[in-house]
Amino acid sequence: MNYPTRGQVMLALDLLPESLGSDHFCPIDFSSKHNHTSPVSSLPVHPDVRLKRLPFYDILGELLKPTSLVPKPTGRFQETFFIFHLTPQQAQDIAMSRDFRPGAKCEYTTQVQLRFCLLETSCEQDDNFPPSICVRVNGKLATLPNPIPTTKPGVEPKRPGRPVDITALCRLSPTVPNHVDVSWASEFGRGYCVAVYLVKKLTSDILLQRLKQFGNRHPDHSRALIKEKLQHDPDSEIATTSLRVSLMCPLGKMRLQIPCRCSTCTHLQCFDAFTFLMMNEKKPTWICPVCDKSAAFDKLIIDGLFVEILQQSAGCTEIQFSEDGSWSPLRAVKETLVISSPVIKSSSISGKWHCNDFIL
């Protein structure tokens, strides 16, 4: 039996009608090792995988739905190909979104985004690169995050999970397909997926406005938390009657402007919302700077009680909460230092030393 060559397959794909859309395209194996004895993979082509939403990107379209990276029983190192098309409107939206302002990086704000994750359907998945990953888009090498060095012997350095912007490598045409070549090292018992999305890149200013649209959490929520923390425990010999909280942001070391914390955190200490968003725009970690636990964007709240406190305590950097939920400012105490300096007074009778006090 004669199999078609790669060029014949590609030509046939180019002749497919554009109305089919990306959902009709499956991974294509152009490996020369195809033979009659290759078993059919039990992995679904499009598994029901859900990737976690990225706060700094709005999804405009799905160019390639999550697709299994299907390994072949020919060795550890694998290779497969995918194809996706852009509609005329999508191609135009991308081309018109490029920033040509003086000093700008000429980046696209509407982007083609490539993502990898584990083939796991039980919960939403973080970005996760397969081992030894290499990606080419239309024959050009895609830039991936640098691997994190490891000191463990025999352990391969792993790339930090994050999306890959492949816009600059794409053909912005509705009539020409885009080809993605993925090579990776398979792992026993662990599968991976790839997906391609059309996204709109957002800024920390936009996310701040969205956070404000949710409104402030009612002050009574924080008052109840204060009363709970200061509630007397009859089994404890030590009773806490007050709580001291700083009004300084632990990130920017400046007085809070927009007091924010994660709804899942149990502490009262807030951080500045805009500073937190700007830091995650540069390097997304979404970790609370107070307790080092997860602080996802959709879990952030603006604390209404601290908004009131900041408005009523100009210049104050620390406050104290009482058992009833009330608060009072803590003013810095100016300390007076008294230094004794010896002064010699001329006296023909005693010839003794006398001290004068100086106050600084």
TrEMBL record:
Coiled coil: none annotated. Pathway: Protein modification; protein sumoylation. Residues 37-202 form the PINIT domain. It is found in: Nucleus. InterPro entries: PINIT, PINIT_sf, Znf_MIZ, Znf_RING/FYVE/PHD. Residues 234-319 form the SP-RING-type domain. One of its GO terms (biological process) is protein sumoylation. Keywords: Isopeptide bond, Ligase, Metal-binding, Nucleus, Transcription, Transcription regulation, Transferase, Ubl conjugation, Ubl conjugation pathway, Zinc, Zinc-finger. It comes from the Eukaryota. Belongs to the PIAS family. This is E3 SUMO-protein ligase PIAS3,E3 SUMO-protein ligase PIAS2,E3 SUMO-protein ligase PIAS4,E3 SUMO-protein ligase PIAS1,E3 SUMO-protein ligase PIAS4-A.
